[in-house]
Specification:
Blueprint (H helix, E strand, L loop, with lengths): L2 H40 L1 H14 L7 H10 L3 H7 L6 H14 L2 H10 L4 H22 L20 H35 L2 H16 L6 H14 L1 H9 L5 H11 L7 H7 L10 H20 L2
Length: about 300
């Protein structure tokens, strides 16, 4: 078989699985995003944030920042960023809030992805929110007291005064997200087929194997770890789910990978979004990876004790 035929075979094979995964994601994302929009419009999210104020003040954040965090649990990071940019926070406060949002953003959808790959939905949900506060507590202790002030401008901010405007913005935003998701997921599935066809995934696995061992993960996780940190859990879900369902990664290894990714994933795009508004890149990358590694080894240790 010629290289041209092999490429055509890989491209053709990527579409069916991508289509099924896109439809599954849409069934999750569309109702969740609509519900959050309506909750925002009704003021219920603001009420929840007021209740959480004391908890956020305990980790060095103003009570108003709880609104951004609550939104991050339900939505991708662009909505929390729009809120953060209006709060007049210091760089130190933004860094603490950034690490919380980076761990917990879009948790409802991404926990469903991790459930499909063998983890408990509620364990992932609890772990991500719990680790967000643990990280905030640690960051509040170790961050320098004076990191300067941020000159932020409102991003993606819109004033919605009527239900009609809310629905219009939701429809437009959801349509843009669906198109973006379809393109990225399909592209990733084709990329995976090409890497498998030309045995490049084997090379990636061998190169990353020592790093996986350090992290407490199987060498079979190498490519999936790479994908999850480049494009995130939502866009990388097609590959993550397929690898497990096809038996290329065991459920046990997938669970351990999920424990790591619950804390540290999408190191590229999501991190750069916060860097763009002045958050220091080092404080939201290296410590987050180290926290994820520590969590995996702790879970491994606990599992052995209670085995």
């Amino acid at each position: 078989m010629s290289n041209k035929e092999r490429i055509f075979k890989a491209v053709k094979g990527g579409f069916p699985k991508a289509g099924r995964t896109i439809l599954w994601l849409l069934k999750l994302i569309i109702p969740i995003s609509l519900a959050v929009r309506l909750l925002q419009y009704s003021g219920l999210l603001d009420y929840v944030s007021v209740v959480l104020n004391p908890l956020f003040q305990a980790v060095g954040l103003p009570g108003s920042s709880s609104i951004a965090f609550v939104c991050s649990i339900f939505l991708p990071l662009y909505a929390p960023i729009a809120i953060i940019s209006t709060l007049g926070m210091t760089i130190r406060q933004m860094t603490i809030l950034a690490i919380m949002c980076l761990i917990s953003h879009n948790t409802l959808v991404e926990s469903a992805v991790q459930k499909r790959t063998g983890s408990s939905y509620f364990f992932m949900l609890g772990m991500r929110i719990g680790m967000s506060f643990l990280a905030a507590f640690i960051w509040n202790i170790v961050l320098p007291a004076d990191m300067g002030s941020a000159n932020t401008v409102a991003l993606l901010q819109s004033v919605e005064v009527s239900l009609g405007q809310v629905m219009t913005h939701w429809v437009v935003g959801t349509a843009e997200l669906c198109v973006k998701m379809a393109l990225i997921v399909t592209g990733l599935m084709i990329l995976q087929r090409l890497l498998e066809e030309f045995h490049i995934m084997d090379v990636i696995s061998r190169i990353c194997a020592p790093m996986m061992r350090l992290m407490g993960l199987s060498k079979d996780c190498s490519f999936l770890w790479f994908i999850a940190n480049i494009v995130g859990l939502t866009y990388g879900s097609a590959i993550l789910i397929e690898e497990v369902e096809d038996g290329k990664l065991s459920r046990a290894d997938a669970k351990m990978l999920n424990n790591h990714l619950a804390i540290s994933h999408s190191l590229l795009e999501d991190t750069l979004i916060f860097v763009a508004i002045g958050v220091p890149i080092v404080w939201i990358t290296v410590p987050r990876v180290l926290l994820a590694i520590a969590a995996v080894w702790v879970i491994r240790g606990v599992s052995k004790v209670f085995k």
